[in-house]
Design brief:
By secondary structure, the protein is α+β, with helices and mostly antiparallel strands. It has 2 helices and 2 strands, in the order E-H-H-E. The two termini are about 15 Å apart.
Amino acid sequence: MQLSISGHHLDITEAIKQHSIEKLSKIKHHFDHLININMI
């Protein structure tokens, strides 16, 4: 799964990125056909 994280008027820190990856990795268990996720 490819994950793209960007922020609008917000700097994406390493902590935000790691938290997002942790939460979105749980989605993969329910939707195994996901190819990429764009998070803004």
